[in-house]
Amino acid sequence: MKFLGKSIAVFAAFACVLASAGPSMAGTSRIKDIASLQAGRDNQLIGYGLIVGLQGTGDSLRSSPFTEQSMRAMLQNLGISTQGGQSNAKNVAAVMVTATLPPFASPGSRIDANVSSLGDATSLRGGTLIMTSLSGADGQIYAVAQGSAVVSGFTAQGQAANITEGVTTSGRVPSGAIIERELPSKFKDSVNLVLQLRNPDFSTSIRMADTINAYARNTFGAPIASAQDSQEVVIQKPRTADLARLMAAIENLVVETDTPAKVVINERTGTIVIGADVRVSKVAVSYGTLTVQVNETPQVIQPAPFSKGETAVQPQTDILAQKTGGNVAVVDGPDLKTLVAGLNNIGVKPDGIIAILQGIKSAGALQAELVLQ
Questions:
Q1: Domain boundary among 179, 198, 219
Q2: Mean pLDDT over each residue of the chain, to the nearest integer
Q3: How many CB atoms neighbour CB 298 within 10 A?
Q4: Which of 29, 156, 247, 296 has the most CB atoms in a 10 Å sphere around its CB?
Q5: CB within 8 A of 120, min separation 6: which ones?
């Protein structure tokens, strides 16, 4: 297991900054920052296309027969006969094209498209995506993509060595897709608005509904919002209200947010993130490590002069066992700052802090959710 040497210092500094605001730091955010409109969801598009103009880094047509089939079909659609032998050109690559159709997108507007190699091409740098239709989950074509592919990675190769930086088999076509069809649903045809919290929480959901109702009483004379659960808040459209103007007013309302207490641990990098509301009951902690070192130093034994003995190798093994730590410390975290100070006083490395937090959770003294990544 590999850990960052300075991660515990960064963790302590970050946690102390959070703790300086008080034992229970509640933040305020605009509704547009913590919730999204259900009717304003994104839609994913996908298509299959060809990239041409590569400098010998495209698909090998014998290893990728679908690339040759696609190339022949494209040329036939353009009125070019493809009768004859196989082509050995390596300047064509088959790619999967993906894009995200934003909400309320209108025909004629442009979006970015992503291209990823499907065959054995080594690089898409310098290639141009040929006109490719992009379909949604319903099978309808919503956009058409075409344009030069931008690849951030590069590769250089010589006779005895090569170097590659980044990914050269995927790229991006900026503003390369033109929307041809709009989504069937209309925003202003909706009867109500449904807001979905990005981090579901009952307290935040109730506070958001109360904030919206306070605004509605002053504007329309009656409440219009109700919290359905920890994620959804439904807003009924007032008879005299315009939905676009209503949403513009609601999304700028400020709500006091709340989050559950969590401790997030990434054992791969040694990163520890502790939330502001994490509490630890009084508990005694002892941490020690046992190091066992085995050294093999074989010795060569020579026979006596003028004897008929043979040279032999005698094994010799030295085993050293060393145990460090073992001090018992009392950790009591009524607030975040005290918890961090108690963990730092034990004087262990990040992997030790992770093991201690897992042990405290198993003992039932950690009043938070432990998330392992």
A1: 179
A2: 80
A3: 10
A4: 247
A5: 59, 60, 63, 64
Q: What is the pLDDT of residues 245-280, one digit of tens each?
A: 899 999 999 999 888 888 888 878 878 888 777 887
φ/ψ of residue 214, rounded to 5:
-65, -40
Q: In what order do the strands lie in the sheet with 369-372?
A: 271-274, 262-266, 369-372
Q: What is the DSSP letter of 102?
A: -
Residues 296 and 341 in one domain: yes
Average pLDDT for residues 133-151, to the nearest whole number? 93
Q: Report the relative pairing of strands 262-266 and 369-372 from DSSP bridges.
A: parallel
Specify the residue for token string 């032999």. 312
For residue 79, being part of any structural domain is answered with yes
Final residue of a structural domain among 203, 234, 256: 256
Domain that holds residue 350: 7-24+261-372
- In degrees rounded to 5, what are phi and psi of residue 216? -65, -35
The total number of structural domains that make up the chain: 3
* Token pair of 172 as six digits: 């991006």
Q: Is 14 helix (H, G, I), strand (E, B) or coil?
A: helix
CA distance 41 to 34: 15
Residue type at 220 in one-letter notation: F
pLDDT tens-digit series, residues 102-121: 888 889 999 999 999 998 88
3-state secondary structure of 213: helix
